[in-house]
């Protein structure tokens, strides 16, 4: 189980404090060779990834989270439903990436736009989520520098990476979002696996390296395939 200090952070009502701003950017992920790290057993988070929202409600309650990689919105709806006191920023540029992301989720621009518009309609009519989500159509690595400048809200206590699973993309997001994460908060993500050199799927390599450099434990959910990984930021003394 994760440490007891996960109950330390309680943030007051957030929904009315947010405003959105987005700047255009472009990103091309160059393929590189990344050495495979030796696999090791990771401690269990004590729950399945489908119970993530309930775990957030129990441990964080009134707090702000960020979901990176929204797509059609299944995970966003799952988290919002199970975390009724949470507010979630939905970060996704909703555009086709021409390089560095060769997966079926990387649909053409028109399909991305349909996903975005359909999800907006679903959320608009979905009971219990009004005032608890905000879309931010931007590349994930570009958001942290804008966060405090645009006063999106308090530092997030939860960041979830569910976008490009390449080593380079995951590493970039970890480095970008970690300083913004509130003390005692958690950063996590889907697909704790790696394939080959990590240029296409290198989540585990990036996460393990990041955790090792910071001397931090990595927890994984109780899922047989592609579990969620979680790293907690130490609380302030």
From TrEMBL:
Protein keywords: Signal
InterPro entries with a match to the protein in the record: SAM-dependent_MTases_sf
Domain of life: Eukaryota
Signal sequence interval, chain numbering: 1-23
Protein name: Uncharacterized protein
Originating species: Polarella glacialis (Dinoflagellate)
